[in-house]
Write a structure and sequence with these properties.
Layout: H1 2-20, H2 30-37, E1 41-46, E2 51-52, E3 55-56, H3 57-63, E4 67-73, E5 91-92, E6 99-102, H4 112-115, E7 120-124, H5 135-148, E8 153-156, H6 192-201, E9 213-216, H7 240-249, E10 270-273, E11 282-284, E12 302-306, H8 312-318, H9 323-331, H10 343-347, H11 351-357, H12 362-367, H13 370-381
Parallel strand pairs: 1-4, 1-7, 4-6, 7-8, 8-9
Antiparallel strand pairs: 2-3, 5-6, 10-12, 11-12
Length: 390
């Protein structure tokens, strides 16, 4: 009987320890930010990931008597169903009748007229920690708008699933665009809250403005923590495999003839082309699907590779790699037409395509980024809210 009691108590302690270590995201820490919102007219910058458990942040705040007047939605829309780059219209949330303003297309930055009746804004969006994933660009524009219109901003922090490393070419500022606005590597290893602090601290906002931010940090999280996203952050990142592979495979968006799986059930987990030799180990044919209504290489049989079978732990440890891109370039028949004009925006480094064309291997190419990454890490360190991975 004593042995049974000891075993049961041990199991209880184990379960309690695991539960105690569960990550608590900023949105769940209501006691930390509700006092900042009570009695004020509130605007939210949110999408489908802005949830507390199974309940959207908008529904939660309204149920608690918070006066939410306006919702701003980023790329992919409030419910996260729009294609990458697709026009998202303004509208009204049918459930709560709250007005929704799209922060994409011609209105990437909230306008003074949209902010004038608001006292405070709340930003709560799950990021994946990759420079060309546009939610950090939305964050910058929101911070600039708040600074210019004297509106405070509360940032409800969430873990970065790729926050356990830093890698990739550092953006050359002559190639700034919505898919890369600041001199950071492709994988920069920071949460939204940390990144916002850096935007302020390095005076990277327009006209060196300073935004009055309050970051509500996560609990039980650091930069070594494995965090599985409970809600897919966008239509073509459906699982953790896609999220880990995204920094490496997104370069194919800047090619003329390589598909990364848009229009299949494995976006950002496979790659191939109709111009690759047919003896590749995998084939697929992109079709119109939700989140990819007109995918690259539509209806063309592509020959390539299925990376979805690689264990998650292996993908997480693999981190960012150029090897998929280098392999695709090697397999392409017409190398003069391999890169599209969009590639330089993704790489934000004019030399990368040239290095690949010269036949340089991954190790040699990465050596050319080493000094800039080391310099960035010094900057990054100043703004970390959580214990680092090194």
């Amino acid at each position: 009987m004593k042995k049974l009691v000891v075993v049961l108590f041990s199991v209880f302690l184990l379960i309690h320890t695991v539960q105690a270590k569960n990550v608590v995201v900023g949105a769940e820490r209501l006691d930390q930010y509700l006092p900042l919102l009570k009695g004020k007219s509130v605007g939210l910058v949110v999408n489908q990931t802005s949830a507390i458990g199974n309940t959207h942040l908008l529904d939660t705040l309204l149920s608690l008597g918070i006066d939410v007047q306006l919702v701003f939605a980023p790329e992919h829309g409030f419910r996260g169903t729009a294609d990458a780059g697709e026009h998202v219209s303004n509208g009204v949330d049918p459930k709560t009748k709250t007005a929704i303003v799209s922060l994409y297309g011609d209105n990437k930055k909230p306008k003074p007229g949209q902010l004038k009746d608001l006292d405070i804004l709340v930003f709560d969006i799950q990021d994946v920690g990759v420079r060309f994933y546009t939610y950090i660009s939305t964050l910058q524009y929101v911070m600039e708008a708040c600074a210019e219109n004297n509106k405070p901003l509360v940032i409800l922090d969430r873990p970065n699933p790729n926050g356990h490393y830093v890698d990739g070419p550092v953006l050359d500022t002559q190639y700034r665009s919505f898919v890369g606005m600041q001199p950071i590597p492709i994988v920069y290893g920071m949460t939204m809250g940390e990144y916002a602090k850096m935007l302020n601290g390095e005076k990277w906002l327009s006209n060196k403005e300073q935004c009055a931010i309050t970051v509500i940090p996560c609990l039980n999280y650091d930069h070594k923590t494995f965090y599985s996203l409970p809600i897919k952050p966008s239509p073509n990142l459906p699982n953790m495999a896609a999220i880990y592979l995204y920094p490496s495979l997104c370069f194919f968006e800047g090619t003329n003839n390589v598909s990364l799986g848009r229009g299949t059930d494995k976006p950002f987990q496979i790659y191939g082309s109709d111009v690759f030799p047919e003896n590749q180990p995998f084939s697929f044919t992109p079709k119109p699907v939700d989140g990819a209504k007109n995918p690259p290489l539509l209806d063309k049989k592509c020959y390539g590779y299925d990376l979805s079978t690689i264990p998650l732990d292996t993908l997480r440890k693999q981190k960012f790699t150029l090897n998929y891109l280098l392999n695709a370039y090697k397999l392409s028949k017409d190398k003069n037409k391999f890169f599209s004009s969009f590639f330089i925006k993704l790489a934000a480094k004019g030399s990368l395509s040239v290095q690949i064309e010269k036949g340089m291997n991954e190790k040699t190419i990465k050596t050319t980024w080493k000094a800039q990454i080391a310099k960035f890490k010094v900057i990054r360190k100043k703004y970390l809210l959580y214990k680092d991975f090194e």
